[in-house]
Specification:
74% helix
Length: 554
Amino acid sequence: MVTHFLLHWFHGLHQKLPASSILSSVFLSQIHSTFSLRTHCYTLDEHSTSSSSQSQSQFQSQSQSQSVVRTICSLVCQSYYQKTHIRFTPPKLLLQLDSESLTHDRAITVVASLADEAGSMVALSFLYWAIGFPKFRHFMRLYIVSATALIGNKNLERANEVLQRMVKNFAEAGKLKEAVDMVVEMQNQGLVLSTQTMNCVLDATLEMGLIELAENVFDEMSKRGVTPDRATFKLMVVACCNMGRVLEAERWLNAMVERGFIIDNATCTLIIDAFCRKGYENRIVGYFWKMVEMGLAPNVINFTALIKGLCNQGSIKQAFELLEEMVLRGWKPNVYTHTTLIDGLCKKGWTEKAFRLFLKLVRSNDYKPNVHTYTAMINGYCKEDKLNRAEMLLSRMQEQGLVPNTNTYTTLIDGHCKAGDFVRAYELMGLMGKEGFSPNIYTYNAIIDSLCKKGRFDEAYRLLQKGSGHGLQVDGVTYTIFMSVHCRQADTNRALAFFNKMLKSGFMPDIHAYTTLISDLCRQKQMKESERLFEEAVSLGLIPTKKTYTSMIC
């Protein structure tokens, strides 16, 4: 009975396939060996009529294969039905079975048999058990037979689920194209692809960084009658944000809003951070309130992320207005919100206002300043050369049981270096080590930069060599510091040598590095070379500063 069903299904499928389809022939070749095996396993009575023409060993082999398949099917059913309640998801099977002893062909036969005789969920449970082993995880025919059996049982939702698993597993192995081709082919065989399946393809494509291909997948969804949902647009927006392609993210965000979809809180925070990093704070404020109008209920994290963006832009007044709006909506600012505002005020030079907010936090019964809050305040005092107050805060935080981190020490070291107190800077550097914190490249850059500005070049080089001996890796800032040194000494060739070394090391020079060289070349009357560097900087997407233009004019 089983054999006749399979043969009838196979021949019916053959007639449905378009003769011109290359993928169809691939699909049939994948299926054919499966059903050839199935026939051998379950047509013992048919073959027995002609047993005189077969060897006894072949008969025994078929009988043994049939017995193995039946045993496995029995084990699967026993494990599946250990719990009798209604199942909405396939349970995890506990099979006393060595996966290495199970051949690919027998695994396929088991899936097909279970789907026909025990039902879709049992077959799906076995599939999930099998693909838990590397041996079967990237075996295409196993997925095809499973999905096809589910389609035959009119369980299209589970068939789509199988394809989603296939796409994820094949993408991990770098075989995404094979999986996508088969998804398309399964639709040609009558499977109605779900939005979730196409989202899975889209997600796998984006995980590989193939944004252009993902856009093609999106377009293909509409052509194939699959309607994009909120998750589809979210995938595109998030991927563009993660890649720093903010303007493309804005395009997808617009399309999302036009269709009435709103983002969730986590995505909202991610978008705010991405836009603010690129300097698009004003744009994201507009989208933020648009989303609120559409039904987004912003939380403390969303508000804090936006406040941070505004503070980094220097829009302190706007940040405090947003804080008031946050409080009006029933949200209490936390220590991170206050720290963000304190940091913004300090960077603006309004240290006393920042300290008043700091004291408010100290007296609060809800939140207390953390290491980041103290570090922000210390940074503010260092910038105003109020090092005594900065040191006082360092002692205060230690009294409170807070441990200064690398950033705290580096901030204070930078302040003492700028004030010319290298003795205290080196003391703090040693204290870092005793506290279990290793000075990083930012710590070294702070000291090296100040040493160079004081004309202590040899000492700066020795410090860098010492750091390199401890495994320190220089960054673009380090190269720029030494470029500036040689430019001030009118040694343009050495400066260019550091510039080229920076490029070879894989660091992208910023506009400050280019401006340093352009300024020096202009002083040396090498105008053509300075213009070449200017054009190069612009072509890389760097935005010239006032100093850049002034250097070229003067």
